[in-house]
Design a protein that fits this description.
Number of strands: 14
Length: 352
């Protein structure tokens, strides 16, 4: 069996970066290991398109050009796949579509948009979610494809991170570290660390989507214990090396209806580093129940201060949190398990 793999960033480039050891495989959602499951993969090549409508046209054209070469479409997002999904809903595209859905399915604000959305969701054969919480919210919508919704245990590329652990095994674990760029709540994080005087290194891009982090961080009152590092380009391996040398990974996020911060969480698990994270009910991993870190309410500086002081004052327990996190990644959440669960869903459409 063969699938056509679609991602919103260039999968061919990402696959080559993974083969070169510069990118972890889990950013391709199990696609790197589908061959181990007996499924061949055609990696989509995104052209230089700026607008969503032109991306959708470009994607549809390439899927149609390769139509006879694959049995199903496996996608990590429907952004740029909209035209093909509508064609599938109308019966004009005959290959099954298996797609990740990152947010809950919700009712549209207008009747017209809701009618269009109902047609659109008929174009998916299977939808994959990160957590039961997102599925439960989605089931409140009449558009939810009951019986075709799955939880997959998305987790880190352990081979990638184990190599980093080998390279940094002689390093001391010192200080707190914040990486990641999506919807980070910097005012809360910076103020909490200003009050605790614990060492913090923030690695972030100057701007992400609508947030100008350079301007925002420049306006905040920071203690001498907080150090800002602006990064650009593919620095995933370098950032993972920094996390592996830290005492604790801190993930302070704005409130959302999806799993913001999850990529940073699974990286910390793979590296055996304890976590302090905003309490996001959409997360598939209950960080406190699993004993791999602490969670705090959104925008709660005092709660962040207490969590930071606890980790700082209990180094032995913090190390045990990291070890428990590593065990979770090895047993339940990792890219090999993700690929296996994806393969089971895809094989429903294998030709007999």
């Amino acid at each position: 069996m063969r699938v056509y793999y679609y991602h919103s960033f260039n999968p061919q480039w990402a696959h080559a970066q993974w083969q070169a050891g510069k990118l972890p495989a889990h950013l391709l959602y199990g696609a790197c290991h589908l061959k181990d499951e007996g499924i061949d993969v055609i990696f989509h090549n995104i052209g230089h398109v700026k607008h969503r409508w032109s991306l959708s046209l470009d994607t549809a054209w390439k899927l149609i050009c390769h139509y006879r070469q694959y049995d199903a479409v496996y996608a990590t997002t429907f952004r740029g796949l909209e035209l093909i999904v509508f064609l599938r809903a109308l019966g004009l595209f005959r290959k099954p579509i298996i797609c990740w859905h990152h947010q809950p399915i919700v009712k549209a604000k207008s009747r017209l948009r809701e009618s269009i959305a109902k047609l659109f969701y008929r174009g998916f054969d299977e939808l994959i979610f990160f957590s039961q919480a997102i599925i439960d919210q989605s089931l409140k919508s009449v558009k939810a494809p009951i019986g075709h919704m799955h939880i997959v245990h998305w987790g880190p590329d352990l081979d990638f991170y184990n190599k980093i652990l080998q390279e940094t095994k002689t390093s001391k674990h010192e200080g707190f570290i914040s990486t990641g760029k999506e919807r980070r709540d910097m005012p809360t994080l910076v103020e909490a660390f200003r009050q605790t005087n614990a060492p913090l290194d923030i690695y972030i891009c100057r701007q992400s989507n609508s947030i100008n982090y350079e301007q925002l961080l420049g306006s905040l009152a920071k203690g001498s214990n907080t150090h800002i590092h602006y990064i650009q380009g593919n620095k995933i391996k370098e950032m993972a090396e920094c996390v592996s040398k830290s005492q604790c990974a801190v993930i302070c996020c704005q409130e959302t209806n999806y799993t913001v911060g999850l990529t940073t969480v699974v990286e910390a698990l793979a590296l055996g580093i304890p976590i302090i994270c905003s309490r996001n009910p959409q997360m598939p991993i209950d960080i406190e129940r699993e004993g791999c870190g602490l969670t705090v309410p959104y925008r709660d500086v005092n709660a962040w201060t207490r969590a930071i002081q606890y980790i700082k004052g209990h180094p032995d327990e913090a190390r045990q949190m990291g070890l428990r996190g590593k065990a979770i990644a090895e047993k339940k959440y990792n890219d090999a398990i993700c690929a296996h669960e994806i393969a089971i869903i895809i094989r429903k459409y294998e030709r007999k």
